[in-house]
Design goal:
The chain is α/β, with parallel strands linked by helices. Helices cover 17% and strands 48% of the residues. It has an eleven-stranded parallel beta sheet. Strands 8-10-13-16-14-11 form a six-stranded parallel barrel. Strand 26 (374-386) and strand 27 (389-390) form a beta hairpin. Mean pLDDT is 90; it is low at 1-43. It binds 2-acetamido-2-deoxy-beta-D-glucopyranose (2 copies).
Length: 412
């Protein structure tokens, strides 16, 4: 190589190195810019304020269309999305939030109150007020749902031609659901229903309805797995939490119930082909003036259903009519079950550290199926008083044992 070529090549390689630095420098900057805006977008999820879609928080303007549009936008977003409901009262009729969304991270953050129409017929003919179907990764944070159920309860009390009424909030065939800090007020029928779902976390909810309101269960769970209900207060007219067929891996902790009918597994054996209830833990619960505390209830009818692996731990009863009850002879009005026995096999149920007061002399009633006696029933440190004396217990068709402090007339 002669000198001329050497200089030439040096020049070429130097200038291409310079260009390379220049190229990467500029593009690195651009690249970082794109990266940062991308991560900015994905951390601060796309926000849809219902006011932008025309919702009015004045309590009188129907906001159904606005909420539908906000849901369509959030559901159609390929990125995590938040629907925001600011303070105010939003009038909403029956609404379905349908799934198969483009993302699986939708938060509905509510600072306001959703109110049902005053005329109970409007919701009354639907099964649900707000229903979520086939959704994945939906969280409802905060907010109040005022279903205005009182007028319908009054209608039902008079026994005139009344509609059934709507469940306030339902999740069906959905996964990874969170409900946190929600208040449900005066539902027409059940307050919250979890049906056919997996991985549901309910926390810090408040349910309020009159103690004599009909069928206003607080939370109803069925055909669902891995559901947690934590740190909540439920005052209502029917079951605090009702647990239907096909419930598996349910964890209830730190819940206060009352007024109402307490926490109930059942009613089961309504149908012949029914899935079992298994692995339920009910822990650190308080019952105040409820009809029942911890109940398992089945119709006196044949069924393939069962109850297996239930732990009732650390409960306080205050003036509860039936603190501990298994009733396998449920047959209201003696219709469709006289002379039949329950097909539900109840097995492996622990009552541990249950204390407080009963409103009736018999605090423990275990009335099991003659054909399938209850098995593996354990009472461990159960200490219930009636008028300052140890309360009584009664058992039929039960196999099990008592440990620690038990009842005076040990019926196991
Ligand atoms: C029972 O359910 C709990 C959640 O409630 C879960 O952690 C546990 O693994 C389940 N046990 C079995 C045997 O499936
Ligand atoms: C629930 O747990 C809390 C904190 O551990 C305790 O103070 C309270 O007495 C418990 N309540 C019941 C009903 O066991």
């Amino acid at each position: 190589m002669d000198v001329y070529h050497l200089i030439y090549f040096t020049f070429i390689s130097l200038s291409s190195a310079k260009m390379a630095v220049k190229f990467f420098g500029t593009h690195l900057y651009l690249f970082l810019l794109i990266l940062s805006s991308y991560s900015y977008q994905s951390s601060a999820a796309t926000n849809y304020n219902v006011l932008i879609f025309g919702a009015k928080g004045n309590g009188v303007t129907d906001s159904n269309q606005a909420f539908s549009k906000a849901w369509a936008a959030a559901c159609g977003s390929t990125e995590p999305a938040t629907i925001y409901v600011p303070k105010g009262r939003y009038l909403l009729g029956s609404m379905a939030f349908k799934g198969d969304c483009k993302n699986s991270d939708i938060t509905i953050r509510i600072d306001g109150t959703l109110v049902a129409p005053s005329d109970y017929h409007v919701l009354g003919k639907s099964d649900n007020w707000l229903s979520f179907e086939r959704v994945s990764g939906v969280s409802i944070i905060g907010g109040a749902l005022d279903a205005k159920g009182t007028a319908l309860w009054n209608c039902k009390a008079k026994g005139t031609n009344c509609p059934n009424g709507a469940t306030t909030l339902s999740f069906t065939n959905s996964n990874n659901v969170k409900i946190n800090g929600l208040l449900s007020l005066n539902s027409q029928m059940f307050h919250i229903v979890i049906n056919g779902c997996q991985n549901v976390h309910v926390e810090r909810i408040k349910v309020v309805a009159a103690g004599d309101s009909p069928n206003t269960d607080g939370v109803h769970v069925q055909l669902s797995r891995n559901v947690n209900i934590m740190s909540s207060s439920i005052k209502t007219g029917d079951d605090c939490i009702s647990i239907g067929p096909g419930t598996k891996n349910l964890w209830i902790e730190h819940v206060t119930c009352g007024p109402g009918h307490g926490i109930s597994i059942g009613s089961l054996a309504k149908d012949m082909d029914e899935e079992g209830v298994q692995n339920v833990t009910v822990k650190n619960t308080t019952f105040i003036g409820t009809q029942n505390g911890l109940r398992i209830k089945s119709w006196a009818r044949p069924s393939k259903g069962f109850v297996q692996g239930i732990r009732f731990l650390d409960a306080v009863m205050r003036n509860v009519q039936n603190p501990i009850i298994i009733d396998q002879n449920y047959c209201p009005h003696n219709l469709n079950c006289p002379g039949q026995v329950s097909g539900i096999q109840i097995n492996d149920v622990t009552y541990q550290n249950i204390r407080g007061t009963s409103a009736t002399p018999v605090a423990i009633k275990l009335d099991c199926s003659t054909k399938y006696p209850c098995k593996g029933i354990r009472l461990h440190n159960v200490n219930l008083k009636y008028l300052n004396q140890l309360a009584q217990s009664s058992c039929s068709n039960v196999i099990g044992k008592e440990l620690g402090m038990g009842q005076p007339n040990d019926c196991l």
